[in-house]
Amino acid sequence: MKTLFDETCIGTMQLRNRLVRSATWEAMADETGLPTPRLIGVYQDLALGGTGLIISSATTITGDAARIPGMLAIPDDTCIPAYRELTRTVHDAGAPVVMQLVFPGRNGIFWTPGDPTCDDIQSIIKGFGDAALRAQQAGFNGVEIHAAHGYFLSQFMNARKNTRTDEYGGTVRNRIRFLREIMSDIRAKTGESFPILVKINCSDFEEDDGVWDACREACRQLAKQGISAIEVSGGIHGTPFPPEGLPYEESVFRDHATEIARITGVPVILVGMNRTPAVMTELLNTTDIGYFALSRPFLRQPGLANHWRENPDEPAECLSCDACRNQPDGNVCPFREFPEGET
Ligand SMILES: Cc1cc2nc3c(=O)[nH]c(=O)nc-3n(C[C@H](O)[C@H](O)[C@H](O)COP(=O)(O)O)c2cc1C
Questions:
Q1: d(CA 5, CA 14)
Q2: pTM above 0.85, yes or no
Q3: Structural domains of the chain sorted by starting position, each given as residue range(s) with its CATH number in brackets
């Protein structure tokens, strides 16, 4: 029987358990997008807390990209030393760490598929590859391409949002071309063995046109290109989570993730309302899903992985209330309890 605490590998990364910290914008980067000591402390807590794999918050690939306040950025090589500090801290605390890469837009404006010219698209593809190489040089164990939640890359997969008539719009094959070309550029720049992950929407759950078809085909093709793991998510940033109409209260995208694991044979990470070890263990043993990513529960309990090792019968304390998104000073859980003397 498989357990959440099996030691496994994703490509060259060794994981001490199957619990993954899903990318979570902390709103703690400095004004240029570099990690602050406080933000590095968040990652250190997660690593000391036993987390199997840590995925950074969405990190913009270019300097002029639209940034949400406090968001990370890796626009050029001068950033590398600051990120080295982060990766060193996490490694010393015992966990591998992957950088999530995102392109939101330019000149402070969020882009949609209609905005870029083909030349822009080529420069964004190159931007992902260059950013991945910087992440590798800074000591990250891999990168994750953010193609979920209605952000730029994810919009390309939705035929209602992507109305382009060139080779990046129209058919499923065209709508996933951008993602595939990004994967190729990253692979070419970082070498054969550097882990590349993708976070992808199974459905937008609103104004959705063809996202599941595009998701399945993208995952099939990325598997052929050597993707290391696929994190299956869904929904649109800024809308209620979990989306309505799903048959489960926990581990809500389990059916989609099961199908992606079946058709690709690649390690699949399920994200979205993973809260109970027994539910995850059951999925682990009845499907090919191999990993479970959590976001909000780790804000309340950064030591949740170690806690579950000792207390597998206790569900996460997270209320899924989203108060963490509305705090005045960083995305923290207002209900988090600190040991005496700490804040
Ligand atoms: C405060 C906050 C910030 C988030 N930032 C990101 C992000 O940077 N990148 C991303 O892919 N998802 C982000 N998410 C979504 C989570 O990774 C995750 O997919 C979602 O919250 C569902 O998981 P959960 O039910 O365990 O919270 C964020 C979620 C929250 C609550």
A1: 12
A2: yes
A3: 8-326 (3.20.20.70)
Residue 230: closest CA among 268, 196, 276, 281: 268
Neighbouring residues of 182: CB distance < 8 A, sequence distance ≥ 6? 124, 125, 128, 129, 145, 153
What would the pLDDT profile of 185-244 be if each residue is shown by its tens digit? 999 999 999 999 999 999 999 999 999 999 999 999 999 999 999 999 999 999 999 999
* Residue whose CA lies nearest to ligand 1 atom number 18: 295
User: Taking CB atoms and a 6 Å cutoff, what residues make up the pocket around ligand 1?
Assistant: 22-25, 57-58, 100, 146, 148-149, 199, 233, 241, 271-274, 294-297, 324-325, 331
Smallest CA separation from ligand 1 atom 2, residue: 24
Strand 13-15 and strand 109-110: the pairing is unpaired
Q: Which amino acid is at 1?
A: M
CA distance 257 to 232: 6
Helix, strand or coil, per DSSP, at residue 13: strand
Q: Indicate the angle between helix axes 118-137 and 80-92, nearest 10 degrees.
A: 50
Distance CA(266)–CA(262), nearest Å, equals 8
| Distance in angstroms (rounded) separating the CA atoms of residues 297 and 110 | 29
From the CA atom positions of the chain, what is the Rg in Å? 19
CB-count burial class (<10 Å; 0-12, 13-18, 19+) for 183: buried
